[in-house]
Amino acid sequence: MGFDCTACHADLVSAELPHATPVAKVDCGTCHESAVAAFDESIHAVARRNGAAHVAATCVDCHSTHDIRSASDPESRTYPLTLPTTCNRCHADEETIAKGHIAIGNVGDLFKDSIHGRAISRSGLLVAANCTSCHGAHDIRKKDDSQSRVFRANIPQVCGTCHEGIHTQFTRGAHGAAWASGQTDAPVCSDCHSAHSIERADVGSWELDTVNECGTCHLDKIKTYRDTFHGQVTSLGFVRVAKCSDCHGAHEVLPKTDERSMIAPGRVLSTCQTCHEGATAGFAEYDPHADKDNRERNPELYYASRFMHWLLIGVFGFFGLHAVLWLPRSAMERRRRHEPPPRPRDENE
Known about the structure:
The protein is mostly helical. It has 4 domains: 26-141, no CATH class; 151-199, no CATH class; 201-289, no CATH class; 293-334. Helices cover 47% and strands 0% of the residues. The chain is built from 18 helices and no strands. The longest helix has 40 residues, at 299-338.
């Protein structure tokens, strides 16, 4: 269905041609009432009302003016494969970012190098997440707005629109249960995967970084993990050893008291055997988070560690004292070696 000029420029219905310029501002809400109502509550509209009208996006910035096309048209600015380029006209432009005081900075370059960005630009996947998949289209809101799609509590559900299976696992896990119980500091998808710079989960660098991410919350566990062979090898940059997710799972993380957990007494041996094929029941009794500083949890390790600690101090102290006491004798020996030999006695003397 086509439209003539006056469908948008209603002020020109009775005007003589050629019409005078400039023409009145077009009201998109005449036809797109719901879209304009949503936009009026968005971060772009709020920014314009707060003095950033010279840079904050309006309808024409995303949809253009006379060449407006359907989002399903490959030539459209809002076509899924083109949309990141449209958004990047502002969000990857340093001048616009500075003028608009956009705190998150240049997210365009981060997204371009992410797994979602590469799926769009390199693989041409229409199903890959683009800007509107996470932020919405007309009702884009600040992340601290509870109605925003990227508000912390809403992130798992938004990611779940594409990653439905992962979302199901997350909700069954300890992190999802923590959110369900009202623990707003529990981790969500973006805490582990980031937001705009999401990487492939099977990339070695990401696997190693995940250990650190887990450690930002589980400080006591990362400390004891780093004391183990697994932890020390990952610190050297090797990935072919057990990391947090190898033992605890990734999205359906469960406590060992839950029989579904990978570290539950009935399953821990099979978990160890994924790497150590010949592992026995005795092997699985190994404590991967033994704490040498916790006397109640690991008394044998605690006292062994203290013994070695004081033994080391004693050995260095003894030999240090020995070295100090030997210094005067050593000095005397050096002086003696440098003294001229005694002059032979003259028989006539």
